[in-house]
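Weekly puzzle thread! Below is a chain. First person to post its structure in token form gets bragging rights.
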Amino acid sequence: MQTWTWDEIKLDIDEFNPGKTLIWNENTSTTILHGKWKKNDRSIVIKLIFQSQKRNYEELKKNLQNEINLILTSNQKSVRNIIELIAEIEGELPSYFPYKYLSPLPPEGFAYGAVLMSYEYNLDEYMDMKLLEVDLKYHILTEIMRSLYDLHTIVGIVHGDLKPNNILLDSHLPPLIRLCDFGLGNINEDRVKNQNYQTILHQSTITAGNHFCGTPIYAAPGKVSISFLR
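Winning reply:
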């Protein structure tokens, strides 16, 4: 996997939409940045964490590296319909970094991140925009199921937070489908114990200590207690 410098990226500062293009998530201490890849002018997404943060930078970096490794493993094993990982990026942020679009402002300086391909819509946005005919619904569901089948049987990866916001689509008909955001993912040891894959373990996809991880409304039946939902 490549490691990039900021010179590999073109940020279209003048075209930024603060509500869509740059998102600072205070709860997870990540920033989602949209830009362009200079090599081919392809849209990309950069998921960043900053060194000077309330939470421990090394812990945040380890969690993001776990996500990167899960996506990289899926890409290398030709798992269908997984977001494409382009590179890691780490180093001092450039002077042109668009801090003014972040609210609240994260700390300036050193950052680590994953560079990923970008797609036009998530499934929520796509369903709001289009009236989905039966054939299109069948295509979307089939491609999602193919991806999950490959994840579970080829590499033993459990996504951990599958929901419409983490399913991406492009503008073609029928659209390309990509699963993204493996931040709560893990590899099931039982599935891969006899295979030569590096086992990357994470906290439970549903609970970490006494804290819920994931999205309750999309969690598998039986994984969320009734008392939690009240």
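Puzzle host: Confirmed. Bonus trivia for everyone else. Confidence is low (pLDDT under 50) at residues 196-212, 226-230.
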